[in-house]
Amino acid sequence: MQSGGVQSGAVGTEPTVLMGTIVNPAGLTLAKIVPQTRVPVFASAGLGASPTWHAFAADQVGIAFTDAIGVVGDQRIRIDQEAMRTIDTGLAWAPGEFFSQAGEPIPQCARGTLRRVVDRLAAAGLQALVGHEIEFVVTGPHGEREPSDLWAQYGAAGVLEHEAFVREVLSACESTGIGVEQFHPEYGHNQFELSVEPLDPVSAADQVVLTRIVLGRIARRHGLRISLSPKPFADGVGCGAHQHISLRRGEAPVFSDGSGAAGMTVDGEHAVAGVVDAMIELQGVLGGSVVSGLRMLPGQWAGAFACWGVENREAAVRLICSGPSTPRGANLEVKAIDGSANVYFATAAILGAALRGIDARMTLPPQVIVDPSTLTEAQRTDAGIRPLSADQSTVVDTMDSSPVLRDILGDPAVDALVAVRRYEVTHFPDHTAQTLADRFRLAWSV
User: Fold this and answer.
1) 47-76: b or e for each residue (b if 16 or more CB lie within 10 Å)?
2) Rg for the chain (alpha carbons), in Å?
3) pTM here?
4) Nearest-CA neighbor of 413 among 118, 96, 72, 55?
């Protein structure tokens, strides 16, 4: 198998068991465990799994059956052994992919889909790096609200209140080979953000999965859990999962060192245009869960408008320009992503949209230099600024009918995504923000 995965890290004591994971269309992290002696089999022939793994729903009960996904048949999960990492004494981890019993890639497999999109970029002479921000809220062991009397937005009190947890997370990330860019308290009560270093797209998505596992394990040691839900508490702030994308053609960056808008090259302008143009259709992949609409509102820094701007935190696409304060260079931050998304599918959708913009030589719309919500509807229409939807039924229907997404991800993958998200909309149609937040608070936790 072509390798991806986290590219560095200490291995320590030989582990006794290995956990192989996949992320399904509902954004759930699913796992199989084998003793160390079975690792070679897990990596070659693979372990059996029902096609329904692609249809398990986020309510922890339902299965979103489709014509292509049912109780008949069997698939194989193979781990990428080159991406294997030791998490702790006795426990190793590796990302997995789905194959048929004959060894053919399964088109609903998210990691395999991302690798195919990366191959398309390479064929076009482009290479990508992706960095991720992981926002989460610390809760009690059953998802209950933790005390936050001393919490202040971005305040040092938050670090000191959870100092033992913070220190252990950083230590575990270092020993596991996770590159931490920064770790800080966030705006919401008991909310943190962990930003990890940019890697190639598949490795970066693998790193997110591994980081979530590390966070979950350490939280348990402290009698806590972490919530990655888009809206952990109805009266609190949302949690995003922003992605930072940079592209290069050969050795040359496309989002800087050019003569175009904000210093971009022609390729860079086309790439941004492609992402902005497709953003409404991408929304179901980036934030398609039944909880996502609670976050996708103006004033949440969630990127609730399909537009772009330099350092504009209310635009769905924020351009971070190159300069002395950005040693890694210019990049795009896509903000309309949350923790309920499948990270592999989300990255594939963004990169595919950027490549589509380059291939079609799409015209870059004018940048937005104000908070889009401060404009009138007529002003936004004149500027080509489109609001993302907070109605998840509309989001799912748009995803289902999107020729752009179907071209990027393929029909089987989109059909699986639509099925699990339509299941959520159908089974939780009239729930309040409170009941949705309560029901799904730990749905995407590990």
Assistant:
1) bebbbbbbbbbbbeebbbebebbeeeeebb
2) 21
3) 0.96
4) 55
**All residues at 6 or more sequence positions from 175 whose CB lies less than 8 Å from its CB, including other chains:** 9, 10, 12
Q: Is 242 helix (H, G, I), strand (E, B) or coil?
A: coil
3-state secondary structure of 111: helix
Tell me which amino acid residue 81 is: Q
Q: pLDDT band at 149, cuts 50/70/90?
A: confident
Tokens standing for residue 54: 């692609």
| Distance from C-alpha of 208 to C-alpha of 360, rounded to nearest angstrom | 31
Q: State how far the Cα of 94 lies from the Cα of 203, in Å rounded to an integer.
A: 11
Q: Following CA atoms 214, 215, 221, 225 in sequence, which dihedral angle do they give, to the nearest 10 degrees? A: -140
Encode pLDDT of 363-411 as tens digits.
Answer: 999 999 999 999 999 999 999 999 999 999 999 999 999 999 999 999 9
How many CB atoms are closer than 10 A to CB 324? 5
What is the enclosing helix (H) or strand (E) of 348? Answer: helix 343-359
Residue with tokens 């009698």: 223
> Over the range 9-23, which residues count as b (16 or more CB within 10 Å of their CB) and which as e?
beeeeebeebbbbbb
Orientation of helix 163-176 relative to helix 201-221, angle to 10°: 140
**Looking at residue 141, what DSSP letter applies?**
T
Contact call for residues 81 and 94 (beta carbons, < 8 A): yes
Residue ranges of domains in the chain, CATH in brackets: 17-108 (3.10.20.70), 117-430 (3.30.590.10)
